[in-house]
UniProtKB/TrEMBL annotation:
Transmembrane segments: 26-46, 58-79
Superkingdom of this protein's organism: Bacteria
Protein name: PH domain-containing protein
Keywords of this entry: Membrane, Transmembrane, Transmembrane helix
Domain named YdbS-like PH: residues: 81-152
Length: 178
């Protein structure tokens, strides 16, 4: 599995990680509700259909598949990481097959920040990252936690004065700024 500390293996020696997060837990809400409704349907089928070994086995195994599906989706959510360095934006994901999507910050031409009512209440938002006339794999990042903080840091990295950003914490001469 791709553990959080392993994402650093994909960083270049000359780059520094600025932000590393996973999608907000609200991303899993849809899966929780669907799994709970499916399990409820299996319980109701078991209860109201005539007693039969076939129905008992069928509802049991369907419920087991639903729980296993939810477990896999939860693991995938847990290990997926969104990483912003001083040079690029990366999305690392996968259990068996690891994939790392990447967009250099130099290619970013526009950033858009969206926040729905649910996002304002629960603390997540969407970042839309556009590059020069191309659709990138990382053009839309939904369920971003702490979206204002991440948007500000990414904006400073992309559009800020060269070598002088709050996100990197450094001035042009390399002194730490606090």
């Amino acid at each position: 599995m791709l553990a959080p500390r392993e994402i650093d293996e994909y960083l270049l020696p000359t780059e520094r990680r600025v932000i590393r997060v996973r999608q907000h837990w609200a991303f899993m809400w849809k899966h929780v509700v669907l799994t709970a409704l499916f399990l409820l349907a299996m319980v109701l089928l078991e209860r109201y259909l005539p007693d039969s070994v076939l129905i008992d086995n069928l509802t049991f195994y369907l419920a087991l598949v639903a729980v296993l599906r939810f477990t896999v989706l939860t693991i995938l959510w847990w290990i997926e990481r969104i990483v912003i360095t001083d040079k690029r934006v990366m999305l690392a994901q996968g259990i068996i097959v690891h994939s790392v999507g990447m967009m250099p910050l130099g290619k970013v031409t526009d950033l858009t920040f969206e926040r729905s009512l649910g996002g304002r209440i629960m603390g997540y938002g969407t970042l839309i990252v556009e590059s020069a006339g191309q659709i990138q794999a990382l053009n839309r990042i939904d369920y971003m936690p702490r979206p204002e903080e991440i948007y500000e840091a990414l904006s400073e990295l992309v559009f800020g004065e060269k070598g002088k950003t709050r996100a990197t914490g450094m001035l042009a001469r390399g002194r730490w700024r606090r």
